[in-house]
Amino acid sequence: MARKPPRWYFSFGSAYSWMAYRDLVTRYPDVAEAIDWLPFWEPDDAHHDHLEATGVQLPYVAMSREKYLYVLQDVRRLARERELRMVWPVDREPRWEVSHLAYLVAEEHGHGRQFIDAAYRARWEEGMDISDPEVVGGLGAALGLDPGLLGGAWQDPEVRSRGLKALNAPYRDGVFGVPYFIDGFQRFWGVDRLPGFVSAVRHRMAAATAGAH
User: Fold this and answer.
1) The whole model's pTM is what?
2) Could you give the domains of the chain?
3) What is the radius of gyration, based on Cα positions, of the chain?
4) How far is CA 10 from the centre of its chain?
5) Phi and psi at residue 131, in whole multiples of 5°?
6) How far apart are the C-alpha atoms of 132 and 152, rounded to whole Å?
7) Integer Cα distance of 166 and 162 in angstroms
8) What would the pLDDT profile of 7-39 be if each residue is shown by its tens digit?
């Protein structure tokens, strides 16, 4: 059985995932180019019911007030350490299909990474509501993509079907939060575990290069 490529699961809804993204592309661009990028999000009711019916259970739990207050403090601290300008989002009832299914469309058109950058910047650096289809459509337009195609992806039956398949991947991989990194049997959860993942991937890449000579 062929070994799966190293990969990471990201979500536009997670500030920790945003910071992991920034670390990955600025500090470890070689690893960023060598791994698979896979989305992970909290499904809407229709997707949730379909996943449950097929035996797919994603580990979402409500956040306590105490944990929420801790996360607010922790995220601000980590952003300051990275000298990142951060605006805490105000989207009170997010619809994560809007942005993540738009990503699948952007990826299909060869602009997946650019869309990820734009979506993270919009939500965590500019305070925009990426659950608004018009906002997401605007992100697509800035990339030269049809804004209606991206803004309407969350309602497109074919794209929603692809979204269900995408959400099967974290279930199979046992993902329980983001950012989540996998290299072979090694798993790394959290932005602070990214250096360990990078080390593992680079070690394997070096060994493969040495074996080819």
Assistant:
1) 0.93
2) 7-211 (3.40.30.10)
3) 17
4) 2
5) -90, -5
6) 10
7) 6
8) 999 999 999 999 999 999 999 999 999 999 999
